[in-house]
Design brief:
Radius of gyration of chain A: 20 Å
Structural class of chain B: mainly beta
Distance between the termini of chain B: 35 Å
CATH superfamily of the largest domain in chain B: Aspartate carbamoyltransferase regulatory subunit, N-terminal domain
Order of helices and strands of chain A: HEHEHEHEHEHEHEEHHEH
Number of domains of chain B: 2
Order of helices and strands of chain B: EHEEHEEEEE
CATH topology of the largest domain in chain A: Rossmann fold
Number of helices of chain B: 2
CATH class of the largest domain in chain B: Alpha Beta
Strand content of chain A: 15-25%
Shape of chain B: elongated
Strand order of the largest sheet of chain B: 2-3-1-4-5
Oligomer: heterodimer
Structural class of chain A: alpha/beta
Radius of gyration of chain B: 16 Å
CATH superfamily of the largest domain in chain A: Aspartate/ornithine carbamoyltransferase
CATH topology of the largest domain in chain B: Alpha-Beta Plaits
Number of domains of chain A: 2
Number of strands of chain B: 8
Largest interface: A-B, 15 and 16 residues
Largest sheet of chain A: 5 strands, parallel
CATH architecture of the largest domain in chain B: 2-Layer Sandwich
Number of strands of chain A: 9
């Protein structure tokens, strides 16, 4: 029995198989509409996360399965003091697979160690969010056509953004990727990530202004710059506009550049960019459903035979 | 001249970094036994300048080499039987340690679930880096005794 705790749990060839399956699901949804008939997904969300939970639930329903669960700790037995280990033992009696989000880091791993069913980490504090990374990789593979030899710009909060850290680690397993880190000094990429880049001989550059580099990017990954991350209001006001993607900035980008964002967006991408064919963040959300469908099938070891 | 009584059976831990003997005393659980324990601090050493030494009269099976390997694998472990040193044990970095140190990350699941063992895994042998099995927080060897 396998679980998914980190995006690195799967080898690159296992990921290729997962993404191939996700692509086939996208092309032939009817073929997979009953693969999970009679199966149940438990969504155990100890903190609210509407998009991730609904994406998991939509994925299971698309496969013909059912869902049950809770969407915040107060409506679960955790409010009565039950441990994660006990909860998952009980959930194992009710469902066939579990997606767990927990504010405490490592909670899904504790669950996996006691579980009788596969556990998917649906986000544990600031630690891991592997299905977001799988979504990002599938988006790049499908829209850019490959997972190697490109220049990716990561823009915004690179210090605290777990999505960004996780994506960088996952991309470090592929060849020929040049990283461009675009952030204010206050939100620079942490040293330990830079150490990993050096260890893998990856090329990278750090810049402050998106305007200076947007023309050379094949992929632009935007993240939110939050006001509370700044030491003072003055710096925030001075810098925030540099990290807002506008139509003017997009005019300088390559015709083939794809723009990604893990969502939710606040104001870091102007709504006027949404109509640009290069804006890919809503497609990304759709790929998130396909990759979760493929993941559920893979962990449940289900296959659909070609007719 | 400093004279410490000879031990019949037990161990002498030599080449402990000066100042670390008390931490090792607690981590090995020597505060919980009634045997003779000598903690010798700041001994002059040609090799180290200053060092600490621990002498413990006890059954030699008691010694948890993994704990010592984690704390400092350069410590010399002399096994004493019948009043003489019969063996010098080599220490290595253990792949995993359980309940030797606590995870200091307030966001870690171990911070709210008290019954969970605190497990750290060796992730970078070259730089002797251990990380929490659950949250991957880097271990701080001498922050707090367990």
């Amino acid at each position: 029995m396998r679980h998914l705790m980190s995006p690195l749990d799967f080898t690159t060839s296992e990921l290729d198989a997962l993404f191939d399956l996700a692509c086939d699901i996208e092309k032939n949804p009817k073929k997979y509409a009953h693969v999970c008939d009679g199966k149940k997904l438990a969504t155990c969300f100890y903190e609210p996360s509407t998009r991730t939970r609904l994406s998991f639930e939509a994925a299971m329903m698309n496969l013909g399965g059912n869902v049950l669960g809770f969407s915040e700790a107060s409506s679960s037995s955790a409010a009565k003091g039950e441990s994660v280990s006990d909860t998952i033992r009980v959930i194992s009696c009710y469902a066939d697979i579990c997606a767990m989000r927990h504010p405490k880091e490592g909670a899904p791993m504790v669950a996996a160690s006691k579980s009788g069913i596969p556990v998917i980490n649906a986000g544990d504090g600031g630690h891991q969010h592997p299905t977001q990374t799988l979504t990002d990789l599938l988006t790049i593979r499908n829209l850019h056509g490959k997972l190697n030899n490109f220049t990716i710009g990561l823009c915004g909060d690179l210090k605290f953004g777990r999505t960004v850290h996780s994506l960088i680690r996952a991309l470090l397993r592929y060849e020929g990727i040049h990283f461009v880190f675009i952030s204010p000094d206050e939100l620079k990429i942490p040293d330990y990530i830079i150490d990993e880049l050096k260890e893998k001989n990856a090329t990278y550059e750090e810049v402050i202004m998106l305007d200076d580099v947007i023309d050379k990017l094949d992929i632009l990954y935007m993240t939110r710059v939050q006001r509370e991350r700044f030491f003072n209001e003055e710096d925030y006001v001075r810098l925030k506009n540099f990290y807002i993607l506008t139509k003017e900035k997009m005019d300088k980008a390559k015709e083939t550049c794809i723009v990604m964002h893990p969502l939710p967006r606040v104001n870091e991408i102007s709504v006027e960019v949404d109509d640009d064919p290069r804006a890919s963040y809503f497609k990304q959300a759709q790929f998130g459903v396909y990759v979760r469908m493929a993941l559920i099938m893979t962990l449940l070891e289900l296959e659909v035979k070609d007719a | 001249m400093l004279n410490i009584g000879q031990i019949e059976e037990g161990f002498v831990l030599d080449h402990i970094k000066a100042g670390q003997s008390l931490d090792i005393y607690y981590k090995l659980g020597l505060d919980k036994i009634n045997n003779t324990v000598a903690i010798i601090k700041n001994v002059r050493s040609n090799k180290m300048g200053k060092k600490d030494i621990l002498k413990v009269e006890c059954d030699i099976e008691m010694l948890d080499l993994d704990v010592l390997g984690f704390i400092d694998h350069n410590i010399t472990v002399n096994v004493v039987k019948g009043g003489v040193i019969v063996e010098k044990k080599a220490l290595s970095l253990p792949k995993e340690i359980t309940n030797i140190i606590k995870c200091e990350n307030p966001r870690c699941i171990t911070s709210i679930e008290q019954e969970l063992p605190h497990i750290f895994v060796l992730t970078d042998p070259e730089n002797e880096v251990y990380r929490c099995k659950y949250c991957e927080e880097k271990a701080h060897k001498f922050l707090k005794k367990y």
